[in-house]
Amino acid sequence: MVIVMQPNASEHELQGVVEFISGGNAEAFVSHGVNRTVIGIVGDVEQFDEHHLRSLPGVADVVRISAKYKLVSREHHPHRSTVRVGGVPIGPGTVTLIAGPCAVETFDQTLEAAKMARDAGATLLRGGAYKPRTSPYAFQGLGPLGLRILAEVREATGLPVVTEVVSPADVDTVAEHADMIQIGTRNMQNFALLQAVGAVGKPVMLKRGMNATIEEWLMAAEYIAQRGNLDIVLCERGIRTFETQTRNTLDVSAVPVAQQLSHLPVIIDPSHSGGRRDLVLPLARAAIAVGADGIIVDVHGAPDTALCDGPQALVHADIPLLATAVADFAAATGREVARVDRVAV
Fold this sequence. Notes:
Elements: E1 2-5, H1 11-22, E2 26-32, E3 37-43, H2 50-55, E4 59-63, E5 83-85, E6 88-90, E7 94-100, H3 107-119, E8 124-126, H4 144-157, E9 161-164, H5 171-177, E10 180-183, H6 191-200, E11 204-207, H7 214-226, E12 232-236, H8 254-261, E13 266-268, H9 270-274, H10 277-289, E14 294-298, H11 319-332, E15 336-337
Parallel strand pairs: 7-8, 7-14, 7-15, 8-9, 9-10, 10-11, 11-12, 12-13
Antiparallel strand pairs: 1-3, 1-4, 2-3, 5-6
Domain DAHP synthetase I/KDSA: 87-321
Keywords: Transferase
GO molecular function: aldehyde-lyase activity; transferase activity
């Protein structure tokens, strides 16, 4: 059961509802979104009378949810959500381009990649300061130094930062530097990390696990939402199949399916799914054509020397092609390329 609060409900009214629920044999989990606040009830929901709950001050509606993922389901939120990151919208009506280096290596390298991203029409900068790698001998990221570099590049370019966190112990530090926190495929079911990120109050990009079903993906999002954060963007980045010609298999069908089941925005990562530079633009076009709310793309000024995922990074010559693909396919699907929402800054 989910209680939807009125947009103008006061903090006193919110706490009144929470105390009423907690007085029974149940727990109340408050989640704040851009446009609404909802309260999820966990426990013996049958003890509560819906009509009485609706009569409580500040309550707009009470909804019984059959889906396991109650807060991110469209059952209680029929209209799709828009998540804003540093004034940049991600959601229906726009196509948002996120671009940058897979890993932060130096200030100059990150700044060059950020300028490439901006030239392509990106309004958000991605860059990894922490890199969970399959091999313990591979580059693991610069950590706090990488975060400081990202903050400096944001200051120089005006691009809000999206970066990954891999440990609950680092969540507060990453949140101090990032405009959006990314959960990578290997941590999609790191439940302690999901809960920590949900509690910190920053927008979250949740990548689908390489072996995860769509329901498992949405249940992972529910962990974040249950801790008070509805500003979640789902990212399809390819799943593991028997095919060996690509790094992963891009499941474009996940976009409309997830959009039907959840109100959260859904984007696609054409870089990590294909794993090859020559596949990024075709997969990006497919992503926008199928209705993805955005794409996240790797770019690098010198990918042959990149410390992480150089073969999939777009180069300078690809930037005009990326800009054209995003603009043309956004227009073909009746949408605009996302720009900074100055009202939301």
